Write a sequence for this structure.
């Protein structure tokens, strides 16, 4: 999905089913200027309630529409779970080193 | 990039692989319904991280792949009308029809424009009031609301030259039809962006009627591995249900505003799926109130060629998960992304193209 983000042109050529989280930089009525990885482009906000959006929010953009606001609390909660997995991974690394064999 | 890189963390993926290995005791086949998932799975090499007990198979969730060739034939027939401009997502441009493709017609002088959003098509309609702008409305519940927004906007602005040629489809009938047909799977990796719109309720029949779990997944490697783990835990404990892994985006109720607009403009209709045939109420057509924006009602398809399917292409079986792309005799020799025979090789989410690019 990364190459879709290089610039607007590339993004526009890519297929309809990819969506990406983008940060709202500016809101003009029913459209927003959003940024991803350094490039900016417009997103239509008609599928969301504009009054519930603010600058700095992340939205998921799909074929030019913001289809959902990204729930940052949920995202952080997932990342916390992953931190546990990371710890587990480190334990596995240690175990592998001790036994001198690959576990996975 | 925020909210992307974190979900590609190699160490987390490795740890999840270990968890899956520990949790999985019986052989299972899990189907990823969404073509976007197929692509991510092959691109990130997910199958190589899974134990022998876990097999992933691709499903019917690539809109371009399941759409009939006669849809392309009709779009080409529209493009031959003098005053018509066809607007389409890039996905469709190279899909072979019975005799030609939109790309070839474009090279031959037809007015065909690739747009990123249906709103771009609407803008073309505003700028060319003397032309008829036909938008090729393809895709599932993720793109259908966009087409609905455009139709509502055209209605509001009293535009008379904007038309949608709808091949929009809804996902659940195909998920049920596959199991009814006897395709053996043990659980579904549910489509992330369809569910962003629809919410989780639409899948309730799958555990209720068939006893299979559905885990709605994100698209990054960590998302997919976690979803696979969640499904395996469901299967191992016998507690199959609909769960959301992709919680940062998918709300249980979905995007209600988008659903309302979709329901305002479209109504369910029987539709044809490659591999599955005609499924009851699996398509979306414009409601009579909006028939002034329905290409099929307003644009002549004179000169449409008779339907011809390619010989030897097993796209239909691939879409049902009965065969893998490599089982096809055409795969990689006669049929390549440069010169595709079937739609599964054309679409950048098609299983054949994903296998060709990442797992040949």
């Amino acid at each position: 999905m990364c190459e879709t983000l290089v610039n607007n042109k590339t993004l526009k050529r890519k297929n309809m089913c990819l969506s990406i989280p983008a940060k709202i930089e500016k809101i003009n009525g029913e459209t927003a200027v959003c940024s991803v990885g350094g490039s900016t482009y417009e997103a239509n906000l008609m599928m969301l309630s504009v009054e519930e959006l603010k600058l700095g929010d992340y939205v998921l953009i799909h074929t030019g529409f913001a289809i959902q606001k990204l729930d940052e609390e949920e995202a952080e909660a997932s990342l916390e779970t992953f931190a546990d997995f990371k710890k587990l991974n480190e334990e596995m690394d240690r175990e592998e080193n001790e036994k001198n064999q690959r576990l996975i | 990039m925020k909210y992307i890189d974190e979900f590609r963390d190699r160490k987390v993926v490795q740890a999840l692989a270990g968890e899956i290995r520990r949790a999985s005791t019986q052989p299972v086949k899990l189907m990823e319904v969404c073509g976007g998932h197929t692509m991510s799975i092959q691109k990130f090499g997910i199958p190589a991280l899974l134990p022998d007990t876990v097999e992933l198979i691709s499903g019917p969730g690539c809109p371009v792949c399941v759409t009939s060739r006669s849809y392309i034939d009709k779009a080409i027939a529209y493009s031959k009308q003098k005053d018509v401009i066809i607007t389409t997502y890039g996905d469709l441009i190279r899909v072979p029809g019975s005799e030609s493709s939109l790309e070839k017609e474009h090279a031959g002088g037809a007015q065909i424009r690739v747009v990123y959003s249906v709103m771009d098509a609407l803008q073309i309609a505003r700028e060319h009031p003397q032309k008829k702008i036909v938008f090729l409305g393809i895709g599932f519940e993720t793109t259908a609301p966009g087409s609905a927004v455009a139709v509502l906007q055209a209605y509001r602005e009293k535009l008379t030259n904007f038309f949608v040629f709808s091949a929009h489809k809804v996902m659940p009938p195909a998920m049920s039809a596959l199991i009814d047909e006897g395709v053996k799977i043990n659980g579904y990796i549910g489509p992330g962006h369809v569910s962003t719109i629809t919410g989780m309720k639409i899948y309730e029949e799958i555990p209720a009627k068939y006893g299979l779990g559905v885990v709605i997944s994100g698209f990054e490697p960590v998302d997919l591995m976690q979803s696979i783990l969640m499904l395996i835990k469901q299967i191992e404990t016998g507690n199959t249900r609909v769960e959301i892994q992709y919680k940062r985006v998918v709300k249980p109720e979905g995007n209600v505003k988008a659903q309302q607009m979709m329901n305002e403009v479209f109504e369910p209709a029987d539709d044809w799926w490659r591999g599955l045939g005609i499924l009851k109420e699996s398509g979306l057509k414009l409601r009579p109130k909006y028939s002034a924006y329905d290409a099929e009602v307003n644009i002549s398809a004179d000169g449409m060629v008779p339907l011809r399917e390619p010989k030897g292409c097993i796209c239909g079986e691939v879409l049902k998960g009965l065969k893998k792309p490599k089982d096809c005799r055409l795969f990689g020799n006669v049929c390549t992304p440069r010169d595709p025979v079937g739609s599964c090789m054309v679409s950048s989410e098609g299983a054949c193209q994903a296998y060709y690019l990442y797992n040949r």
Observations:
- Helices of chain A lie at 8-13, 72-99.
- The mean pLDDT of chain A is 80.
- Chain A touches chain B through 47 residues (CB under 8 Å).
